[in-house]
Design brief:
It is a single chain. By secondary structure, the protein is mainly beta. It is 7% helix and 43% strand. The protein has a seven-stranded antiparallel beta sheet with strand order 18-17-21-22-23-20-19, with helices on one face. The longest helix has 10 residues.
Length: 360
């Protein structure tokens, strides 16, 4: 028996790319094999060890994605990607680096993502940022990475006094994460250096690391009616990403009352108060749509303002087939901890911070 894989195992693979695995046992004429042992190991740990009966000399494993997806460790929580090996009988038939990804990607392979992309879902679309945004880009350490390579930032600055637009390039240091398998670079607006002469405002910028490109455009303060709310979440690739809500955020207190008749009087014996927030995205760009779909299935998320962990409770996207109508969405969440936290009331005001309450 000389078992061979049907299909190609590349160096880097997603769990979805390995959902179905077939092995041709290459039996000799007249040779009969009643059962064969198939073993899958990830990082040296056995995930699957079964005895299968071949059909027409082929052994087939179906629906492996859930098993492989749940077995992978988020890149920020451990060493990833780990090596996956397939063994049939005494023969090793294939191996690859299993890249964590909880979703199916329609037109991208793990090889493409690892070598050409940052670990987010914006693609090459423009991501909108508030001036105080905190942005970190992640990607995997590959064998063709050269130590000392820096991230190149091309920024566009605007001088309101002189009406001048100026381009400026800057190099940023690349860091290695604690897990060792990831590289990262802080590309927050605050780390970018404005031209030395005059008062300059950041308009847009792009980040390049080898073949990887990420593009940003700033949303200036004062253009939106509510403060921007940022959420940091663990994306489908297992690294942290951010989403910014440029619309309003509503706070809703939802107490739950449990009552009983005690001594002939109805009393509340248990009251639990849980605050829920509902945030409006504002009109979304294509990059925001992609990030929202990723945020909607995130297992962990935190508010960027204070680091409070939250639990997503709903996501409602409204899209139209009219080409001139941008999609909008609302996302709701509650705090992961117990109890209720009430935000300070925000007074009604106009753009200049004042409001005449005399008619109240």
């Amino acid at each position: 028996m000389n078992a061979t894989l049907k299909g190609v195992w590349r160096k880097w693979m997603f769990p979805s790319e390995l959902n179905v695995v077939e092995v041709d046992l290459a039996l000799n004429p007249g040779e009969v094999v009643k059962a064969v042992t198939v073993e899958l190991k990830l990082g040296g740990k056995t995930l699957l060890n079964v005895s299968l009966t071949p059909s027409d000399g082929v052994v087939r494993l179906d629906n492996l994605m859930p098993l492989l997806r749940d077995a992978t460790t988020d890149a920020m929580d451990g060493v990833a990607p780990q090596t996956l090996t397939l063994k049939v009988g005494d023969q090793t038939c294939g191996s690859c680096k299993l890249v964590p990804c909880r979703v199916r990607l329609a037109r991208a392979t793990a090889e493409d993502v690892v070598r050409k992309s940052f670990l987010n879902f914006t693609g090459r679309e423009v991501k909108l940022l508030p001036p105080d945004a905190r942005e970190v880009l992640y990607w995997y350490l590959t064998d063709d990475w050269s130590a000392g390579t820096k991230a190149c930032v091309d920024a566009c600055w605007w001088n309101a006094a002189t009406k001048e637009v100026r381009a400026k390039q800057q190099l940023l240091e690349v860091e290695t994460t604690e897990s060792g398998g990831l590289l990262k670079v802080d590309v927050s607006p605050k780390v970018l250096e404005a031209p030395a002469d005059g008062e300059w405002s950041l308009v847009s910028y792009s980040v390049r690391v080898n073949a990887r490109v990420m593009r940003y455009r700033m949303v200036q303060q004062g253009r939106n009616l509510a403060p921007v709310t940022g959420v940091r979440y663990r994306n489908a690739f297992g690294v942290d990403d951010t989403f910014y809500f440029f619309g309003s955020v509503e706070e809703k207190l939802k107490p739950t009352y449990s009552a009983a008749r005690i001594g002939g009087v109805t009393r509340n014996y248990l009251i639990t108060a849980q605050t829920e927030w509902e945030a409006n995205t504002g009109h979304m760009t294509l990059a925001m749509e992609r990030l929202l779909r990723d945020l909607a299935v995130a297992r962990r998320a935190w508010l960027m303002e204070d680091g409070e962990e939250i639990v997503l409770t709903g996501c409602d996207v409204k899209q139209s087939n009219e080409w001139c109508v941008a999609p909008v969405a609302t996302v709701s969440w509650r705090e992961a901890g117990d109890g209720a936290r009430l935000a300070s009331p925000v007074g009604v005001r106009t753009f200049d911070g004042s409001f005449d309450e005399a008619f109240f």
